[in-house]
Write a structure and sequence with these properties.
Blueprint (H helix, E strand, L loop, with lengths): L2 H7 L2 H10 L7 H5 L5 E2 L5 E7 L23 E7 L1 E10 H6 L7 H33 L1 E5 L4 E5 L21 H16 L3 E6 L1 H9 L1 H7 L1 H11 L4 E2 L2 E5 L3 E2 L7 E2 L5 E6 L6 E5 L1 E5 L6 E5 L2 E8 L2 E15 L6 E4 L3
Parallel strand pairs: 1-13, 7-9
Antiparallel strand pairs: 2-3, 4-17, 5-6, 7-12, 8-9, 10-11, 12-18, 13-17, 14-15, 16-17
Length: about 325
């Protein structure tokens, strides 16, 4: 295939557009928490944002003709640091790129299929890191422990928003309904947001489905309708319940779920006013160009390697989850 066509297909704009279009059936927490467009930093990988505390005061009446009353500024904290950087690559064989042949297919289609398959694998790894970071934000601590990168982000979730069930949910007679109602009030009274969603995995869902108090509270008809249609309890105590049972395998480790086996998470409807993903920028080299290009968030590009001859296909990202209102999250332990 002519070099010009290869450069066109491996242009960073084309490759990055493909990354933006990929979807991953085994991931969902990041998409749930950050459904809107990400917010960009002012450039570079540094971030800074305010931590917001809800004001619970009402306005104070004043006498007619009297001056306005001064109100203290809302107390805020600040979170600052550097975004997470990720960039991984695969080598595309130079001979294969030049001589891809398949009966009944055009060279361009063959090349696209070859590149897309390797790019999808790299991009899924990148997306898993975002998934892990989103889940870690709900826990309250994002830890990175690589040989060359070690960092911790404390999201300032108060210990009162990390409650423990009065009795283990694994016991069928536990009053789960009262626990949920109590935890919902933490969100509404401390953040001002309305608790609307809960996240758990299959293990915790099995406790809910087997619980006598939950069944009685829902009523037989509603219980059977929800479980019969979705396989789960989908609505309980005014919360829409989402079951996320997927996970990842860390290097040298074993399968780890993003939402732990003993946790029940309550949050408001996701929106940028209380949580958002921030995307920083980094510089990359585009194939066939001399000048560097600034890119925000997910990206993909390719560069030529001489020995062995081929193309280095890169997929990367620069981002950090931001939790503006830590009091909007309750991260409960249900099996003390």
């Amino acid at each position: 295939m002519p070099l010009g066509e290869v450069q066109e297909l491996l242009d960073y704009v084309t490759l990055t557009a493909a990354v933006d279009e990929f979807r991953y059936a085994d991931l969902g927490i990041a998409n749930f928490l950050f459904p809107g467009q990400a917010k960009r930093t002012n450039g570079g990988d540094s971030f800074r944002y305010d931590i917001r505390k809800a004001s619970r005061d009402t306005a104070a009446p004043k006498s007619p003709g009297a001056p306005s009353k001064r109100v203290a500024l809302v107390p805020k904290g600040t979170k600052a640091g550097r975004c997470i950087h990720v960039a991984e690559h695969k080598m595309l064989d130079g001979d294969r790129m030049a001589n891809v042949r398949r009966m009944g297919s055009r060279e361009r289609e063959q090349l696209q299929a070859y590149v897309a398959a390797e790019q999808l694998d790299l991009s899924r790894r990148r997306a898993r890191l975002r998934e892990l970071a989103g889940a870690a934000m709900l826990i309250g601590t994002l830890s990175i422990d690589e040989d060359d990168v070690k960092a911790d982000v404390d999201y300032d979730i108060d210990n009162t928003h990390k409650p423990t069930a009065s009795v283990s949910w694994a016991t069928s007679t536990t009053d789960i309904v009262t626990d949920i109602r109590t935890w919902k009030r933490l969100v509404s009274q401390d953040s001002g947001y309305t608790p609307a969603h809960a996240l758990c995995n299959e293990g915790v869902m099995s406790y809910l489905m087997a619980n006598d108090v939950v069944k009685e509270f829902m009523g037989e008809g509603v219980y059977k309708a929800q479980v019969g249609q979705a396989g789960y309890i989908t609505q309980l105590c005014g919360l829409t319940i989402h079951v996320f049972d997927h996970g990842y395998i860390p290097s040298g480790g074993s399968f780890t779920r993003y939402v732990a086996d003993d946790k029940f998470v309550i949050v408001p409807t996701p929106e940028p006013s209380w949580c958002q993903v921030l995307e920083g920028s980094t510089y990359i080299k585009n194939l066939g160009a001399e000048a560097l290009v600034e890119v925000f968030g997910p990206f993909s590009n390719a560069v030529i390697e001489a020995d062995p001859a081929g193309y280095k296909l890169i997929v990367g990202d620069t981002f950090i989850p931001a939790l503006y209102v830590p009091d909007a999250v309750v991260y409960a332990d249900v099996t003390p």
